[in-house]
Amino acid sequence: MEHGVYLVCDGMGGAAAGEIASSLAVEELMRLLKERSPESGSPAQAAEEAVRVANEAIHSRAERNPRLTGMGTTMVGLLTQERRVWVMNVGDSRCYRLRKGKLEQLTSDHSYVDEQVRLGRMTDAEARRSPFKNIITRALGTQPSVTPDIIELEADAGDLFMLCSDGLTRELEDPAIESMLGNDARLAELCARLVNAAKKAGGHDNITCLLVRAEG
Predict the structure, then answer these.
(1) What predicted TM-score, i.e. pTM, was given to this entire model?
(2) What pLDDT digit, counting tens, does each position of 111-133 carry?
(3) Is 111 helix (H, G, I), strand (E, B) or coil?
(4) What are the E-state strand segments in the chain?
(5) How many angstroms separate the CA atoms of 124 and 101, rounded?
(6) How far apart are CA 180 and CA 207, in angstroms?
(7) What is the rounded distance in angstroms from the CA atom of residue 169 to the CA atom of residue 165?
C-alpha cells in the first residue's frame, strides 16, 4: 500500500448529467492528487485543495449549460502514503475497513436521514424506511463550495478498505458485507460477488465497489 489514490464517485442529475459530474470529479481529483508535490502541503491539505478544484469544475460546467443545472456527485476516496491513509468523502458513498474479520464504517453519510440518526431524532430502522433517504446534504458540484470530511489513520498489515456507492450498502447489511469480505478470494472476485449480491437483493441504484488491501 504505497503512494496511491483510490476513488469512487456516484453521479446525480438527469440524463447524462450525473455521469458527466462523476467523470469530471475523478479526472480532476486523480490529476491533482497524483501530481501533488511536497510543496503542496500535507496530504490532507492536498486533498482539500483537490476537492475544491473539482467542485468548482463541476459547478462552473453546470452553470454554462442549463441542461446540466444541479448536477453533482458523491465522492469517497483513499490517499495512501506508506502506512498512512487519508480517507476523504463528500455525500453518501462510504469507506469501510475490515480489520481482523471485523467491519467498521469509517465515513459518515452526508444525508438528511443519517444526520437525523446522529442527532438521535431517527432510528436506523426509521432511516431505512424514510421517504427522505435520497436527500443528500453535501455533494461535489451542487454548490459553489463544499467541505470534505478527511480522516487520517494508520493501516495495519492485512487491513482491507472498501469504497462503495450507496447502491451497495442500501441492498446489503453490514453483517452480510463483513461475511463476504472475510473470504480469502482475490479482490476482483470479492468485488464481483458483492456487486452481484446487491443486484440480487434489488439493485435499485448504481452499484460500485473498490477494494484496497494493506500488504505486510
Answers:
(1) 0.93
(2) 999 999 999 999 988 888 899 98
(3) strand
(4) 4-12, 72-81, 84-90, 94-99, 102-105, 149-154, 160-164, 209-213
(5) 23
(6) 16
(7) 7
Q: Are 181 and 164 in contact (CB under 8 A)?
A: no
* Amino acid code (one letter) for 152: E
115: left (phi over 0), alpha (psi -120 to 50) or beta: alpha
Q: What is the dihedral of CA 46, 48, 49, 52, to 10 degrees?
A: 160
pLDDT tens-digit map of 69-120? 989 999 999 999 889 999 999 999 999 999 999 999 999 999 999 999 999 9
At 113, is the secondary structure helix, strand, or coil?
Answer: helix
Burial zone of 116 (CB within 10 Å; 0-12 exposed, 13-18 middle, 19+ buried)? middle
Q: Domains along the chain?
A: 4-213 (3.60.40.10)
Strand bridging mode 102-105 / 4-12: unpaired
> Tens of pLDDT along 193-211?
999 999 999 888 889 999 9
Question: Cα(166)–Cα(12) distance, rounded to whole angstroms?
Answer: 12
Neighbours of 67 (CB within 10 A): 12
Residue written as cell 448536477? 71
- Grid coordinates of 109: 453519510
Unique residue bearing C-alpha cell 510543496: 39
Evaluated on CA atoms 75, 185, 188, 168, the torsion sign reads negative
With contact defined as beta carbons under 8 Å apart, do 51 and 75 qualify? yes
